[in-house]
Amino acid sequence: MAPLEARSYIAVYGRDTCGWTQRALQVFERNGVNYRYFIVDDRQVAQRLHSRMQAAGLSTGRYQLPVIDVNGEMMVRPDPERVLGRYRDRLYQQAGYR
């Protein structure tokens, strides 16, 4: 699936009331990572998320939050440390280290 941006990024789709979402956001903040946060209760956000999930072969029927897009890879309720690893791998590649 095509990434949303050319540079390394993390896009978090979740809810303010979701503990898993808030935990992921805290991990990213503690690590000084810039991320974009989208609230899935917004109809346009949900439509965009579902479109990207379907393109990635993920079910949009019932799924757990957060859903995180890291550099074009969609992950449903991933370990935030795994997301950080993928984010950093892309940063290193862009810097010419790999």
Task: Characterise the protein shown here.
It is a single chain. By secondary structure, the chain is an alpha+beta fold. The protein has a single domain (10-94), classed as Glutaredoxin (3-Layer(aba) Sandwich). It is built from 3 helices and 4 strands. A 4-stranded mixed β-sheet has the order 2-1-3-4, with helices on both faces. Strand 3 (67-70) and strand 4 form a beta hairpin.
Entry summary:
The protein contains 3 helices and 4 strands, in the order βαβαββα. The protein has helices at about 20-30, 45-55, 80-95; strands at about 10-15, 35-40, 65-70, 75.
Topology:
Elements: E1 10-14, H1 19-30, E2 36-39, H2 43-55, E3 67-70, E4 73-76, H3 80-94
Parallel strand pairs: 1-2
Antiparallel strand pairs: 1-3, 3-4
Could you name the key traits of this structure?
17% strand; 98 residues; 4 strands; alpha+beta; 41% helix
